[in-house]
Specification:
This protein is mostly helical. It is 75% helix and 0% strand.
């Protein structure tokens, strides 16, 4: 086995760090500056006409709260292995987010967080991150389905027969998963996964669920308040049903973090188009959500990536 000199390793790590950070900033700049659907003049004119810095400060605070709740979720789950501070959890969450910006559906986040711990704990960290993201996805599906049903009663996008078929397929899927839970593939099975989940203390699960619900409500209501800021006059329940539907459907599609706003924006344009909302407003709000909840954390996370020191030992 070829031994790599220590200085060569340091140089390689530095190059990887610079590539991650440089690539992240390039994609962010490219998407913001070369997107023909974004009308910056209209947005600047809107901001000037509103002159409500308090409202924009509140929207910015919701972005901070959204990411802070995610940090608290991670700190809570990692307590199963080791007690870490909010500062350490922030480094891990934001650093991993930056490293995952190029990967499909943020898969790189799993490896990013694992690097902050010893190599022997990799499987545990990946599992805990799966729990962390899994509860958020479950809430997205639950709220999204109810949102779609409410939206459908108003606009009848799909027929009642189609709704019944979809629910039938969902029940069939759960039935299949339950029946094959003992089947083992390469040492892994659904039964073993459930056993590992039950191995986590109930108080940790309860806190994880509460923080996940709070984060979902913060994120979805940030969307809601942005629409109000852009003078979209719709009932609360209809607007929230549309937001939860868009978030659910967009999250179901495979995508990259740096293209997240484009995917959500495309789905949002269709749904809000049915409500008569101007397309440029929908695109801009989707872009602002992406900027506030992905770009800003990635910029902060870039600092942690550049100062990162792996806990892995050869």
């Amino acid at each position: 086995m070829i031994s790599v000199p220590h200085k060569a390793k340091q140089f390689l790590v530095l190059v990887i760090k610079l590539l991650i950070v440089g690539g992240a900033f390039y994609f962010i700049y490219n998407q913001l500056m070369h997107n023909d659907q974004l009308d910056w003049e209209k947005f600047i004119a809107l901001v000037k006409s509103k002159q409500s810095f308090g409202a924009f400060a509140f929207i910015l605070f919701l972005s901070f709260l959204n990411r802070f709740l995610e940090i608290l979720k991670w700190q809570n789950l990692v307590s199963v292995i080791a007690k870490i501070t909010v500062g350490a959890a922030s480094k891990q969450v934001l650093g991993a987010l930056t490293a995952a910006i190029f990967t499909p559906n943020g898969i790189g986040e799993y490896a990013g967080k694992a690097l902050f711990f010893e190599k022997s704990q990799t499987k545990k960290i990946v599992f805990l991150n799966l729990i962390c993201n899994g509860i958020q996805m479950v809430l997205t599906v639950v709220f999204g389905i109810f949102g779609l049903l409410y939206f459908n009663t108003v606009y009848n996008v799909i027929t009642s027969q189609t709704v019944l078929i979809l629910f039938g397929l969902l029940l069939l899927l759960f039935g299949i998963l339950f029946s094959v839970k003992k089947i083992t593939i390469k040492g892994y099975s659904i039964e073993k996964l459930i056993h590992k989940i039950n191995g986590i203390p109930k108080k940790v699960h309860r806190k994880n669920i509460l923080l996940a619900v709070a984060r979902y409500l913060v994120f979805s209501h940030q969307y809601y308040f942005l629409f109000l800021l852009f003078d979209v006059d719709l009932s609360y329940f209809l607007l929230m049903a549309t937001i939860t539907s868009v978030y659910f459907l967009a999250s179901s599609l495979p995508t990259f973090q740096f293209l997240d706003f484009a995917v959500k924006g495309s789905v949002a344009v269709y749904f809000f188009g049915l409500l008569g909302v101007n397309e440029w407003i929908v695109v801009f709000i989707s872009t602002l959500m992406w900027f506030l909840n992905v770009v800003l954390p990635v910029i902060i996370g870039s600092y942690f990536v550049l100062n990162f020191k792996s806990q892995w030992k050869s």
